[in-house]
Amino acid sequence: MRKRGRRTPGVLAVVAAAVLGVAGCDAVGGDSAAPSEKANPSPKPTPLWDRSPGSVAAVGDSITRGFDACDVLSDCPEASWATGASPEVDSLAVRLLGRTGAARRSWNYAVTGARMADLPGQMAQAVRRKPQLVTVMVGANDACRRTPSAMTPVSAFRADFEDSLRSLRKALPKAQVFVASVPNLKRLWSEGRSSPMGKQVWKLGICPSMLGDADALDSAATLRRDTVQKRVEDYNKVLKEVCAEDKRCRYDGGAVYDYRFSTAQLSRWDYFHPSVNGQARLAEIAYRTVTAKKPLT
InterPro entries of this UniProt entry (predicted)? Predict the structure, then answer.
């Protein structure tokens, strides 16, 4: 192979002139950067969902208060799936903030017996803390009434949930919201009725629309339970739809409703509320949803 000879200054000048002629006069100089200069990279957009929020406020009902998880007929907020300090539960707040951080930067405004109509008031309390994440679990008491006809209408359930999110968004435009689905009450009946003790406790008036006359399998009892179950499904549809309209809201994708819990996850005092074990399972679902790269569907 022949060795290439050195380019003469004249040849280099011709090549340079040709390159400049193709590139145009603005290739070097003027307001444009030289070809060798790299443009500054555009900053990455801030994600709408922060998977590691710095504070947590919880709103909802007795489940979030840990009712009957530790003692009979008593709230046990230390066992709450959302903000509790119990090592056995490893709550969402502890998983996100650490034990010390959870003690300082998590708050529980849930109230035993609360329904969706109570959520706007709880939300108003929560926003005063300016939390970066608000957890919502409510709806079981809307379905657990004396009779199916006394259940909260779906339209009212939707209106109160929308009102709650609007008030949050007005006060804290960037706050994030985790919404848990309403538990499967019919599965609760199916699991709990295997316990003679559970059925005795239910006779005291626990969720009579679903759990009343637990051994009855006639058409009227079946229709009653199916009506309650359909209402729970309608509530979950509302939670999903309303949450989807808010870019900083995440619904659990029906994970709580779909969870196949057993009596081990139910309170040994009422066979209705979650036990400590059940609270831990709820914490796992919440953490998985909050830290997922993409919303669950």
Answer: GDSL (IPR001087), PLB1 (IPR038885), SGNH_hydro_sf (IPR036514)
Residue 277 backbone dihedrals phi, psi, to 5 degrees: -60, -40
- Cβ atoms of residues 118 and 69 within 8 Å: no
**Residue 84: exposed, middle, or buried by beta-carbon count in 10 A (0-12, 13-18, 19+)?**
buried
Report the candidate in 273, 249, 243 with the shortest Cα–Cα distance to residue 261: 273
pLDDT tens string 55-84: 999 999 999 999 999 999 999 999 999 999
**What is the tally of helices (H) and strands (E) in the chain?**
12, 5
Quickly list DSSP for 61-95. Answer: SHHHHTTTSSSTT---GGG-TTT---TTT--HHHH
Cα end-to-end distance, the chain, whole Å? 66
User: Global pTM?
Assistant: 0.84
Q: State how far the Cα of 152 lies from the Cα of 143, in Å rounded to an integer.
A: 7
